[in-house]
Structure formats: structure tokens, C-alpha cells
Write a structure and sequence with these properties.
Elements (H helix, E strand, L loop, with lengths): L1 H8 L6 H14 L24 H21 L7 H10 L4
């Protein structure tokens, strides 16, 4: 009852101006542009993923994986070869 009396004496509030400001702020904050890759020193490092045949790549890795797994069980990498392998992986950009 008292709450109804208080509500009846408060005029309706127009929040249209505040909503317009919030909408403008959201429009500025949320861009609808696509993601732009930052420039790199070597543009040849970019890869167009749409040109990759993932099925063929999967087949290639499945075949290679079996051979590598079999070799690693038979011939574990001796400790003296590990630094050479790590350096080769660094040069290839793998680590």
C-alpha cells in the first residue's frame, strides 16, 4: 500500500537517451570487422588453411606414425643423439 502510493507519485522515467549512449558505446567497442593478422618479418610463414588437404595429411601421418612407433620401440634414441635432435627441431621451428 505504501509502496503503491510512492510509485504513483514518481513520474515515469525516460531512459531512451541513456540507452542510445550505451548502444553507441557498444557499437564502438564491438567491431564487426574480420580478424587481421599482424605483420610478420617473413610473409612466407603464412599458411592458407583453405589450401590444405587435411584428409591426405591425416593419411600421411597415420602411415608415418606406425613406422615411427615401431622404430622407437626397437631403437630408442641414445642420449648422445638427443642434443642433435633438439637442435634440428629448433632449426625447423618445431620448438
Amino acid at each position: 500500500m505504501i509502496a503503491d502510493k510512492i510509485r504513483s507519485e514518481i513520474p515515469p522515467v525516460d531512459i531512451a537517451e541513456v540507452m542510445a549512449e550505451i548502444e553507441a558505446l557498444l557499437d564502438q567497442s564491438i567491431g564487426a570487422e574480420g580478424y587481421a593478422m599482424p605483420p610478420v618479418a617473413d610473409p612466407d610463414r603464412y599458411v592458407d588453411l583453405s589450401q590444405i588437404d587435411f584428409e591426405a595429411l591425416r593419411d600421411k601421418f597415420d602411415v608415418g606414425r606406425n613406422r615411427i612407433d615401431a622404430r622407437s620401440r626397437k631403437y630408442p634414441c641414445p642420449p648422445e643423439k638427443r642434443p642433435v635432435i633438439v637442435e634440428a627441431m629448433r632449426r625447423l621451428g618445431m620448438i
